[in-house]
Structures are given as structure tokens and as C-alpha cells.
Amino acid sequence: MSRAVHVVGAGVAGLVAALALARAGRAVTLHEAAPVAGGRCRALPDGTDNGTHALMGANRAALRFLADIGAAEGWIEPEPAGLPVLDLADGAARRIAASPLAWRDPALRPPGLTAAGFLALLGMALPFTDKPVAEVLAKHPALLRGFVEPLTVAALNTPVAEASSARLGQVLRRLGGAGAARLLVAREGLGPNLVTPALAALQAAGVAIRFGSRLRAMTQADGRIAALHLGEDSLAVTEGDAVLLALPPWEAARLITGLKVPERHAPILNLHFAIDGVGPVRFLGLVGGLAQWVLVRPSGVSVTVSAADDESEEPVDTLAPRAWAEIRRAAAAFALPGAWPEAPPPCHAVKERRATPRHAVGFPPLAPRRPMRNLALAGDWTWPGLPATIEAAALSGEAATKVLLRLGPTA
Ligand SMILES: Cc1cc2nc3c(=O)[nH]c(=O)nc-3n(C[C@H](O)[C@H](O)[C@H](O)COP(=O)(O)OP(=O)(O)OC[C@H]3O[C@@H](n4cnc5c(N)ncnc54)[C@H](O)[C@@H]3O)c2cc1C
């Protein structure tokens, strides 16, 4: 009989691990506390995403997973000619390439990029020190405002005054390769372009999926997990079987005594405007206002505000008109087709209060990949080489799978 693995948590890390383990011949059960899969990267009941999720061409593990579940085609590059960015302070509308390779064309360079500024970026990409990003770029305010701050807030979900330059360096280093800086978004949404195909692939691979199955506690004996207490049930974990926890840090810390995890988190706010007749899919950046990124899809317009410490306390009644006025300016600046009425369309806000750990200066605690003989850990926060992202989650799921597949028959 094939050895059983209980994967707990159906976010990206758990989905990646469950699929790989099942395809390697393990009898996999996936336990998820919520009624839906996707975790922090999920579709809401009304079909909108909990928040806009973007991938880069450099995110190889995430793209590998999308290919594995047959969903790669659903992720498209809305701005192949460079990211349109509007500075709300002076009205400057430009296209900026995220890839340094494209900066040979002066039209695609970040504003304020000088030789010294380029060296400062290079210094962060090859880090020997770790300082707040704002401090490293203090002598290059235009470059900071127009390029580095939007990138930092998007990738690290942390304000530049506290964000770690070494963590940003992990991102910058990956942008250099050919195609690495291509920005991709889900054409229709996280449901149709990620979660639904992932669940179909898991089912086809024989994974048993249990929703509403919250891991309350684990029984340990002789340095291994002996039982899982899920919802009302308790499950024995017999010799040779294994457990893979793909949980957010606060849940992992609750379940494993003494586990050190990141404790400070940052919120992300998304505003979803219900409006028809816009599109095709576009992705615009805004500087100097409330909205940071605007995703336009034929089904609606979504605004992302990362590191939203203050904004996530503000009511939607005041957020929506502020963001909509900015969106209209961006739509005009980049001549987006469609009617952009003056009055804000119906809007709902999604406030993810613990969207990611804060990536402040200093390294977070290093999570053990296999804290016990038959227990492996995954989750975005367990991957030290990247900030907490889909890519980190996918890489952690792959790594935890490898660890379990290497276990001997008497695990
Ligand atoms: C609004 C927002 C926007 C983002 N934008 C981007 C982006 O553009 N690009 C990017 O790369 N990343 C982005 N991220 C980060 C990305 O979503 C996460 O890094 C990634 O989804 C984390 O996946 P995970 O599997 O590690 O954890 P999670 O998604 O947190 O999955 C953990 C799962 O475990 C379940 N669970 C929790 N406790 C239990 C329990 N006791 N028993 C059973 N199940 C349990 C949860 O319900 C959840 O489904 C964003 C995040 C948010 C919130």
C-alpha cells in the first residue's frame, strides 16, 4: 500500500505539495480549515479575487505549478511594452521597464535613474549590508519615489522606511535574466485561473480533499507526530505515514511548541469596483496617491494598496471616491477604452490584515523544513530566499515534498 501523507492547508504551498506527493505515488489527503482552497490567494464568493496577484517571469516554481495544473495559458502579460505609471503629483505618465536589460532604451528607464542610482540598485542586489531601503536610496529621491518604492511596497509589503534592502536585493537579483521581469496576471481571476484547475488536477491525481477540516492540535510521541486532531475527528498517523503543514506562521506556531516564526505582519487593501465595458486586461501603476496598482479586467477594476497600515482602518465610503478619482486620471492619461463615469461604481473593500510578514531589516527566524521525523513544514514564510510571495510558497511546497519523499520506510 502507498504511504499516506496528510497535507494541512490548501494555500499555494499545500496545493503544490499535495499534487507533487500524489503524482509521486503517495496516498494524499488535503485538509483545509476554510470552505475553499487558495488561502491568501483565493477567489471570493462573488468571483472577485481576495486581492490582485501578479507573478513575474522569474517566478519559475509558480509558473511550473501553473503548467502542471494546465493553467499557464490563463496568466497573461498585460503590459508587454513596459508598465504604464502615472505620477499623480505632476501628471507625468510614462512606461517603465522592470528589467534592467530594457533600460538601454531611455524611454523605459525609471525616473531619476543615474549612474550613481544604478550602482545603489546594484549594491542592494549584491548585498553586504542590510539597511532600510529608504536609507540606501536617500541620495536618489526621484528613483526611490518613481521606481524603488512602488517595487518595494509591492514585493515586500513593507514601507520603505523599514523595508530590508537585503530582502529587496533578493527580488532585484532575479529581474536581470531574459524574460524574468515579465509581469503576469490572471486573465479572469484566481478562481478560474488557479484554484479551480488546481483542485481538478488534485482530484485527477487521487488526492482526497477535506474542506472545513481545521487542525486543532497534534499528538507527538517519540519525536514524531502520532495523531492529528481535525475538527471533531482524531486521525492516527501510523508508522510510515507523514504530515506536511502548509500553514500561515501564526497557525504553525500554535501547533508546534517552540517554533520561531515571523510575528509582525502587514495588511493589503484591495478595492473592487463593479463596472462593465472596460478592458482589455490592463495593469497600471500610480505614484503619490492612495491607489498603487490598478488591474482593469472586462469584469471590473481592482485597486491594490500594499503596506496599508493606515488605509485598512479607513471606511470604504471614503476610500472608494478617493481611489476612483485617481483611476479616472490614469484611464485618461493612458487612453483606456470604455466609459469612466465620474461617480464611483459600486465598490467593496477586502482588507487582508495579515497579508504577509513585514520584511523589515534583519533576517526572520529560519524555519526548519523537517522539525520532526515524519513532519515537514511549508508556507511562504518558510522560504528564506524570497519575500513571502506565491513563488516562495510554491518553492516551499516543492522543498517539503522532496524532504518527505526522501524519508525511509520507517519514518
Ligand atoms: C491581498 C494579497 C495580495 C497579494 N499579492 C501577491 C502578489 O501579487 N504576488 C505574490 O507573489 N504574492 C502575493 N501575495 C502573497 C501570497 O498570496 C502568499 O504569499 C501565498 O498565497 C501564501 O501561500 P501559503 O500556501 O504559504 O499560505 P496560505 O495562503 O495562508 O495558506 C494556508 C492555508 O491553511 C489554511 N489553514 C490555516 N489554519 C489551518 C488549520 N489549523 N487547519 C487547516 N487549515 C488551516 C488556511 O485557510 C489557508 O488556506 C498577496 C497576498 C495577499 C493577501
How many domains? The number is 3
Profile the largest sheet: 7 strands, mixed
Which regions are unreliable across 5 or more consecutive residues at pLDDT < 50?
Answer: none
Highest CATH level, the class of the largest domain: Alpha Beta
Give the overall average pLDDT.
Answer: 95
Structural class by SSE content: alpha/beta
Q: What general form does the structure show?
A: globular
At CATH level 2, the architecture of the largest domain is 3-Layer(bba) Sandwich
User: Cofactors and ligands present?
Assistant: flavin-adenine dinucleotide
Please, how many helices? 10
The total strand number stands at 18
| Amount of beta strand | 15-25%
Q: What is the CATH third-level topology name of the largest domain?
A: FAD/NAD(P)-binding domain
Distance between the termini: 15 Å
Oligomeric assembly: single chain
